[in-house]
Write a sequence for this structure.
């Protein structure tokens, strides 16, 4: 049943001064002249999470050009643009009225990346925005007249400013949509050109700071590909674009400190996502399944086969089925790679600065001093070529001090004052001139990649007899029942809305897709299919506006770091 705005106003005036729980009387749908207001859930008290509200405008009123949402990429981009427009309205209002929880109006806030979100949905029939409203109170007494101003006067301004095509900058909308479509096209084109990443000429890669992901302004040096590695693509909207094509295989990024090595790798690792126009990385794209790998002292590891890298541990510990509550730098890095291979990747991204030295290299002097039978670690340098030759997995490594990697590299790019130079042939000359004295270790193949099946009961987020509780505390922290889940080393998460989805995805997988026999990869396949068919609403069964879609790689990373996890190898 639908009521009118006048019904809503009358109800709120009647509730004025009553106990806060009486606000629940306003749950329901209200037909305004331009849209329908759905109050889906009213908070139980002034200090609880804000109330959930949906604004639905028919396309007869919204009148968005169907070509703007005709493909998944364009639909995602249009929804993102509308979300940003609505967020601007909410921010402007907050600056005028303050940001206290009572009276707050908010929508999920996007960053530099354009993600699939539940904040806005667009289809042929309607446009829907999902917002939250903090219903005002004096203590625990309803401020009904103030609530009426918010819901009847303030909320409709979001509809006027963001959900009606004629009130938006048409050129900006189209530019946003076309930029995302071009990036999706370019990313899909990488494989057929045998590339794993592409960085466009003119890209601005440096960010303002470690806490401000917007592009650096004055002083930023536009990227310019070396001629030998320059590739050209013709995009559906922007037309021809040139830039650095990173080939499949083993690529080194070298150069002096502060010359842009890690900046380039950071741009590549976030090239799995599309970026908004003006970000500087609009045409910097990477294969969708790329995984950043680093050492992670102290992480939990469960039932992982790390034997390609680590064998013959003291006291006979089985590294083919390795578990620990407190991994070292080398064992954590080995586990991170083994897990990435298990759930699916075609590209590893590694920075020497965040790697365990003894995992990356063992030079000839150390080999002479410590015999191989006394050293359980086979360094990555001796496995990286096998990884590509046998499994088709490429690697991009930032290297600042280990020239022995020249022997295994296909491509070497030197960053010089933020400008890339192809030094592959020079690196090969140096490798021939100064032959490595170290002895390759680890045999003539990569080794086994295991499959594992989680035991469902080990993912139970209930707290004793209390109901399940999963709460994303920050971008990098989830409280899973009583267990804190630390994702600070999962560097390709970019939004707390993704983190929230990761936590609830673990619960969904536990309930629906994990039976003690199904592998992690198989469960993730089913989860991806569920998201593709039902969207992120599958996570809760409710119409929540605070999810952004994570990749399977980040969901699996969270699963593998859950300290309660119990698992069985199945192959």
């Amino acid at each position: 049943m639908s009521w009118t705005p006048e019904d809503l106003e009358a109800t709120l005036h009647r509730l004025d001064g009553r106990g806060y729980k009486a606000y629940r009387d306003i749950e329901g749908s209200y037909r305004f002249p331009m849209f329908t207001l759905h109050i889906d859930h009213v908070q139980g008290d002034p200090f609880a999470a804000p109330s959930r509200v949906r604004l639905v405008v028919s396309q007869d009123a919204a009148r968005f050009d169907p070509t703007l949402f005709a493909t998944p990429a364009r639909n995602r981009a249009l929804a993102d643009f509308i979300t940003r427009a609505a967020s601007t309205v909410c921010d402007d209002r907050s600056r005028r009225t303050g940001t206290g929880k009572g009276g707050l109006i908010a929508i999920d806030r996007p960053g530099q990346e354009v993600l699939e979100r539940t904040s806005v949905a667009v289809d042929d029939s309607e446009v829907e925005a999902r917002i939250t409203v903090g219903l005002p109170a004096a203590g625990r007494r309803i401020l009904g007249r103030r609530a009426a101003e918010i819901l009847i006067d303030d909320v409709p301004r979001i509809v006027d400013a963001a959900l009606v095509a004629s009130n938006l900058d048409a050129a900006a909308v189209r530019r946003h949509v076309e930029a995302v479509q071009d990036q999706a096209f370019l990313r899909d084109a990488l494989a057929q050109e045998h590339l794993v990443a592409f960085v466009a000429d003119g890209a601005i890669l440096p960010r303002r700071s470690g806490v401000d992901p917007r592009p650096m302004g004055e002083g930023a040096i536009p990227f310019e590909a070396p001629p030998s590695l320059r590739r050209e693509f013709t995009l559906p909207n922007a037309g021809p674009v040139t830039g650095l094509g990173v080939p499949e295989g083993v690529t080194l990024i070298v150069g002096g400190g502060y010359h842009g090595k890690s900046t380039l790798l950071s741009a590549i690792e976030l090239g799995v996502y599309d970026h908004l126009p003006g970000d500087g990385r609009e045409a910097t794209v990477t294969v969708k399944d790329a995984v950043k790998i680093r050492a992670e002292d102290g992480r939990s590891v469960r039932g992982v086969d790390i034997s390609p890298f680590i064998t013959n541990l003291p006291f006979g510990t089985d590294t083919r089925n390795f578990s620990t509550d407190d991994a070292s730098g080398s064992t954590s890095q080995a586990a991170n790679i083994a897990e990435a291979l298990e759930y699916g990747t075609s590209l590893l991204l590694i920075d020497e600065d965040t790697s365990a030295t003894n995992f990356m290299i063992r030079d000839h002097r150390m080999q002479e001093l410590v015999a191989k039978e006394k050293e359980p670690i086979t360094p990555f340098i001796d496995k990286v070529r096998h990884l590509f030759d046998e499994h088709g997995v490429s690697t991009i490594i930032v290297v600042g001090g280990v020239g022995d990697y020249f022997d295994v590299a296909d491509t070497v790019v030197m960053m010089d004052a933020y400008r890339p130079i192809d030094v592959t042939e020079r690196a090969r000359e140096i490798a021939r001139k100064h032959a490595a004295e170290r002895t390759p270790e680890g045999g003539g193949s990569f080794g086994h990649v295991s499959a594992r099946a989680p035991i469902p009961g080990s993912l139970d987020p209930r707290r004793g007899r209390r109901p399940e509780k999963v709460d994303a505390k920050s971008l990098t922290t989830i409280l899973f029942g009583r267990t804190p889940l630390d994702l600070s080393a999962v560097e390709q998460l970019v939004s707390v809305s993704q983190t929230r989805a990761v936590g609830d995805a673990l619960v969904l997988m536990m309930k629906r897709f994990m039976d003690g026999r199904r592998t992690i990869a198989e469960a993730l396949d089913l989860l991806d299919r569920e998201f593709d068919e039902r969207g992120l609403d599958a996570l809760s069964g409710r119409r929540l506006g605070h999810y952004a879609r994570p990749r399977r790689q980040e969901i699996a990373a969270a699963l593998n770091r859950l300290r309660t996890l119990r698992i069985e190898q199945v192959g």
In short: The longest strand covers residues 239-247. The chain has a mean pLDDT of 95.
